[in-house]
Amino acid sequence: MNRRMFTRLGLASLLAPAATALRAQSFEVTRTDAEWQAMLTDLEYRVMRHEATERAGSSPLDKNYAAGVYHCRGCDLPLYSSAHKFDSGTGWPSFWQSLPNAIGTKEDNTLFTTRTECHCRRCGSHLGHIFNDGPAPTGKRHCINGVSLVFRAA
After folding, report:
1. Which of 118, 120, 123, 143 is catalytic?
2. What is the pTM of this model?
3. What one-character DSSP code corresponds to residue 54?
4. I need a labelling partner for 69 at 20 to 30 A (CA). Which of 8, 27, 60, 76 fits?
C-alpha cells in the first residue's frame, strides 16, 4: 500500500460516518443508491451523496451573478436566491442566507474540526458548509458546492 492509498483510506474512514448518518435520516424525496448514481455524474454523486467537495474554482456558478434562484440538483427545491449571493473569494458559490425552509444542518466533525454541514431539507443532498465569516446582515457564509446546484434565471 502506497502513501496515497493510505491517505485516501484514512480520509474515507473519517467521512464515512457522516455520510452514513445523513443517509439514515428520512427525507421527502428518496431514491435508491442506484437511482442517484444513474441521475448524477460521478462528481455530483460523490459530493451530494457522500459529502465530498468539488475543487475550488471549478464551478461556473461561483462567478455567476445573474438574477435568479439556485435549486437543488437532486430534487429541484429552491435553495438560494441570487440576491443573497456574494463573492467570498473562496472559489465556491457563497450566500449569506438560504431561502426559508430550504436547508437542513448537522454537526460535521471530519477533518479534525467541527463545522456546520448543510444539506437539502427535502432530499438530503449535501450542499456544503456554513461558516461564521460572512457579510452582514447574518455574518454567515454558506459555502456551497456548485455541482449540488442548478441555476434558474429570473
Report:
1. 143
2. 0.84
3. P
4. 27
